[in-house]
Structure formats: C-alpha cells, structure tokens
Amino acid sequence: MTALRNVVPRLEERWALRLEIEEFHVAYAQAIDAGEITRWPDFFTDDALYRVTGRDNADRGLPLGLLYCDGKKMMRDRVQATLRTTTFEPRFLRHYISNLSIDEVRAEGAIKARANYLVVQTLMEEKTELFQAGHYQDTFVRRDGRLLLRERHCVYDSLTIPNALIYPI
Amino acid sequence: MSVQPPNGSSNAFVWPEEGLNAVPDWLYTSDEIYQRELERIFYGPTWNYVALEAEIPNHGDYKRSWVGEAPVIVTRGADGNVHVVENRCAHRGAEFCRSLTGNSKEFICPYHQWTYDLDGSLRAVPFRRGVKGKGGMPADFKLSEHGLRKLRVATRNGVVFASYADHVEPLDQYIGPEILKDFDTLFDGRPLKILGYWRNTLYGNWKLYHENLKDPYHATLLHTFLVTFGLMKAGQKSAMIADPLGRHGTMASAKGDEEEGVDQKAVNKEMRKMIELELEDGRVVGFVPEFKSPWTVTMQTIWPNFITQRELNTLGVRHIVPRGPDSIDMYWTMFGYADDTEEMTKLRLCQSNLMGPAGFLGIEDNEAIKWVQEGARRSVTEKGLTLLGGRDEGTSDTLITEAAVRSMYRYYRGVMGL
Ligand SMILES: [Fe+2]
Q1: Can you give the residue ranges of every domain in chain B?
Q2: Are A100 and A22 in contact (CB under 8 A)?
Q3: Which residue has the higher pLDDT, B104 or A9?
Q4: How confident is residue B228, by pLDDT bands cut at 50, 70 and 90?
Q5: CB A70 to CB B352 under 8 A?
Q6: Do strands A146-156 and A44-54 pair parallel, antiparallel, or not at all (unpaired)?
Q7: Which of A154, B315, B322, B404 has the most crowded CB, counting CB atoms within 10 A?
Q8: Euclidean distance between the first and final Cα of chain B, in Å?
Q9: Distance A156 CA to ligand 1 centre (A)
Q10: Residue A126 sits at the chain B interface (C-beta within 8 Å)
Q11: Which residues is A133 bridged to in the sheet?
C-alpha cells in the first residue's frame, strides 16, 4: 500500500482528488439511503462489475457475489426486479463511508481506491441494527469529466448476514 | 401468543383435532419440542449433510461444519478417506478448530496440546508420564480410548453426509429412488467447481424451510418474479415429489412447457400481482440447457438439514444449522462443474441473483418464513391450516396442493411421538 502522498505528490491535486471521491461516496450513499435505487446504476460505467461478497470468498479468490451485476444493464434489471416483483418489509438504510484510501492512479486515468463502510438498517418497527461492516474495493474512471465506477467489490466482514440483503451496498 | 404446556409436560402437546390439515404453533416455538428434535432427528438415525468433497480434495484438507447445532470437522485423512469428527477436544471439551478450512497433518488443541490424527484418533498427550515421575496420566490411560468423537460417514457423487447414530440405513436407501433421480442429475459424478459461499440467519423455525420447499402453492403466488418469467407457474408442467416416508421432497417445474387444456388467462386472473417486465440484459433468466431432465428447476429437501438447488443454470446446496426454535443459520455453497466454460461460469454467477440471501426469490422466502414465525410467536390464534389438496399426501402433479407438507408431518409425528 502506498500513501496518497506518494501517489499524488502535489497537495492541491491530492485535495481535489480526495474531495471528488468523497463527494462521489456521499452522492452514492444518498441515492440508496433515500430509496432512490433507480439512480444507483448511474454511478457506474456501462461495462462495470458490481459485487457484494463475504470476506471468506474474497480471501479465497472465489468469484461469487451475494449481489452480482455484470454491466449497467444488469444493474437496471436488478433494480426493476427488486422494485416491481420482490416482496419485503419496508426498511431504511444509512451508509457511513470513511477511511478513504487512494492506492493507485494509473497512467490511463483509472484510480484504485478503498473505503470502509457501515450500513445501518432499520426495519419497520424494529430497533436499528448494524447490518453490515465492510470495505469497498473500487476502480474509478473518468467519463466526460465525471468519475464513474468501473468496478466495485463490497467485501463484508461478518460471514453471516441478518435475513436478507435487498438494496445495493 | 403460543401457549406453552404447563411444567413442560410432553402430554400437553396435543395435536389439533383436524389432524394433518392443521399445524399447531408450539411446533415452531417450544424449546422442549426443539430439544426433542435435536435428539431424535438431528442426532438420531438420519444422514446430515456436512460438506462437498470438492471442498476437501487433498489429503489433509479439512473444513468446519455442523450437524444440528453440534460443531464438526470434515477431513480427508492420510488414507484419502473422508472423516467427520466432533470439533471438541476429548480432554476439556474446547471447540478447538477455529479455521473455516485448512490443510494439516494433525489437529492440536491449543489449550493443552492434545494431538489428534485427521480421523480423530488421539496420538499424543503432553506430559503423559508427568515430570520426574510426578503428575501425568494414570498408567492405565489408553490413547485409543480418548479420541475425538467420530461420526458415521457416507458419500454419494461428491456429497458428504454424517450421522451421530450407530445404526442408520445405507445412504442410497435413506434418500430413496424417487429423490435420487434428480439428486443424481445435479451430482452426476462430474467434479464440481466451488464458486463461493453465502450465510444468513433466518428468523424462523427450521421446519418452516422444509415446508416452504414442500409448498409449491406459494411459489406461484409469493414469487412474482418466477411467474413473470415462467420459471414456475400454475398450469406449467410441474411436480411435487415426495419419498414414501414423506420426509424428503423434490419440487420441479419445466419453464415453457405448458400443460394441455390450461386456460392461461384464467390462471393469470387468479394471481393478483401479474406484471409486465422487460429485462435489458436478461442473463438472469437466460437458460442454457445442460441436463438430461424434463425440469428447468428442481429444489430438493433431504431430511433433516439439506437442500439442493438447480434453478436454470444456478446450482447450489443449502445447509440448515438450527439455532433454537426461533432461528436457523443457512449455509449456502454455490458451484458449477470443473469443465464449465468461462461463459457458463459467468452465467451461473449472474443467475445467483435469483436465489440466496439477496436473491429475488430468496429474499421473499426469508421474509415469509420470518412472518410465519412471528405469527406463531405473537398472535392469540394457535394453529395454521394445511387444507390445500384436501387429505391427499405424497407426490402430486399439481402445484396447488399441500400434500407434501402433510406427508412430512405424518412422518415427523411418528418420530417425535406427537
Ligand atoms: Fe419460495
């Protein structure tokens, strides 16, 4: 792991890049937390890979995802199927994203980054619970001046999740 | 609220007078019933799923697993055979194996370094003879009498089962030909490739999971996604198969194979949630035929802790670990075959959005099971109804029946003395 100081030596550039990614995380979390998951695929490139998976799979290099979308179209399919066909109790989520680490800025512009996340879930009448703790393994690219995810792996620590995962992490 | 019998006396568990057309709430909520189930079912003369051989291919490979609530370790010994031993040191009872998987020549309990072979035999006890003639084990202590508790093991085409019972029928007889037919379609002896694992806690009694997969009626109603894409649908060629004892089951359906003489409009009218949905990518319901089977889906329940899943091209097994009357941990292992193309692996991964803790169908079953458990736990009414299909039991060729649920409870009541 390299400190961002070595990856992006100039302070102003470092500030700008950090701020841009932090703002991306905030917008991403806001869309999901507000229940506007139809906006969720817009944070990705057309060919992006999105996966939520347990630490055990990630450690062993196993490809399975709890939620697995190969491309933006499949993300839209996931959203439509969730909203229109799937029956579940109403729930409210809060994403807390922190400890952003920018690990690599490639010559072609791809940025490898990580961040920790906590997702807190509140079911209709129940107490708020810590639903998932994990970290994002991200690859960002720039399209028309805007950062988009080309790859996002959400790797959660606890192997066992409570009941069901419905919305993206 | 479900009324517990006074003093925990088992005589107080009286089955409703409707017989198999009703299910009492105490079946899902009583601690006493649950303890009796562990004893007579999970630790009794049954075969319990513990692992796939593909997870322990090499000598010395091992994996943590469970039979009922009990922690076990599945190993491949130096002799190449599969062993299942209790994950509990014979000395002070420590659950000593703390890795999900691994490879080792031996097991050493960290507490006092008692050392075991992979088949559970005790090999060494530190300071067995004491120091300077002081302390140590009595002279008549025999290593051979203090190994790990060994379970009986049986395998079929790469699937490993274990039993605590000394006497249990051979595995093929236990599962029986009706169920083996579709079991062997999925496990045909080809080497498997593990794609990964899921685990979730379900907030319902373990029997509700069996009921769910012996109740094809719900599939056509709860799962709008299934119906929308014709994966399972009333009026489509389907079957609910039970073994003669009623403990195992296969729910099967053939996408795109509609039965003759079915008025599809009338079928659709019965379902309140019919929707039109066009997928953009569609791979999640894309099906590449790969089995010699009339069915595009088979879901099998093998008593008491095992489920096999073949839905389109997504394949997996589920392992029920009961955690008291109110909840279970479900361990999912998803796989393909070693000779799959990259494209087929990708398809299986994409279709894993159908099942599992985040699957379109999985989500709904988890929710429904939780809601039934809450109904049993909280409300005043004390029983549920299983009247669909009248008094029929066993195998049926319609989805609109609870015949297989009734067969399961006939068998269960015999074992439980209820
Ligand atoms: Fe279901």
Answers
A1: 48-155, 176-416
A2: yes
A3: B104
A4: confident
A5: no
A6: parallel
A7: B404
A8: 21
A9: 26
A10: no
A11: A118
Q: Give me the interface pTM, i.e. the ipTM.
A: 0.95
- The domain tally of chain A equals 1
Of A55, A165, A166, A167, which to mutate for an interface test with B (greatest number of B Cβ within 10 Å)?
A: A165
Residue A168 lies inside a defined structural domain of this protein: no
CATH number at residue A103: 3.10.450.50
Average pLDDT, rounded, for chain B: 93
Q: Is B385 helix (H, G, I), strand (E, B) or coil?
A: strand
Which DSSP state fits B41?
A: I
B359 C-alpha to ligand 1 centroid (Å): 11
The predicted pLDDT at position A1 comes to: 52
Residue A44 within any structural domain of the chain = yes
Instruction: Name the helix (H) or strand (E) containing A164.
Output: none
Q: Which of A86, A127, A167 to mutate to test the interface with B (most CBs of B within 10 A)?
A: A86
Position of tokens 């989805």? B399
Distance B362 CA to ligand 1 centre (A): 7
Whether residue A65 and residue B349 make contact (CB cut-off 8 A), yes or no, is: yes
How do residues A59-76 score in pLDDT, each as one tens digit? 999 999 999 999 999 999
Question: Are B44 and B415 a contacting pair, CB within 8 Å?
Answer: yes
Show which of residues 78-107 on chain A sit within 8 Å of chain B, judged by CB atoms. Answer: 78, 80-82, 84-89
Tens-digit pLDDT profile for residues A136-168: 999 999 999 999 999 999 999 999 999 999 999
Residue B329, SS3? strand
Per the CATH hierarchy, to which homologous superfamily does domain B48-155 belong? Rieske [2Fe-2S] iron-sulphur domain (2.102.10.10)
Which candidate from A73, A86, A162 shows the least CB-CB separation from B225? A86
Choose the closest CB to B197 out of A57, A77, A166.
Answer: A57
Which residue range(s) make up the domain with A30? 5-156
Asked if residue A43 belongs to a domain, the reply is yes
What pLDDT band is residue B2 in, cutting at 50, 70 and 90? very low
The whole-angstrom separation of Cα B319 and Cα B226 is 23
Which residues from B are below 8 Å from A86, CB to CB?
Answer: 224-225, 360, 363-364
Is residue A166 one of the residues assigned to a domain? no
Separation in Å, CA of B241 to nearest CA in chain A: 27
Query: B176-416 architecture in CATH?
Result: Alpha-Beta Complex (3.90)
Give the confidence band of B6 by pLDDT, cuts at 50, 70, 90. very low
